[in-house]
Model the fold of this input.
Amino acid sequence: MNIAITVRPGAREDSIKKEVDGYRVTTKSRAHDGEANEAVRRIVAEHFDVAASRVRIARGITSRKKYIEII
Done:
């Protein structure tokens, strides 16, 4: 499954919300040394009830707009 997400790092809480063009993921982690990307993987994995190791950032590793692949 492939999904499009928009990430908002440095937010007050970790959350995921369905929007018209994909999902919006907010994370408390800062976009520094991949911390936000790891948090995004964890949040998406919890939301879809899969292991974090099955969630991969397919595109957008340095962008707020990302494409996530769930294996």
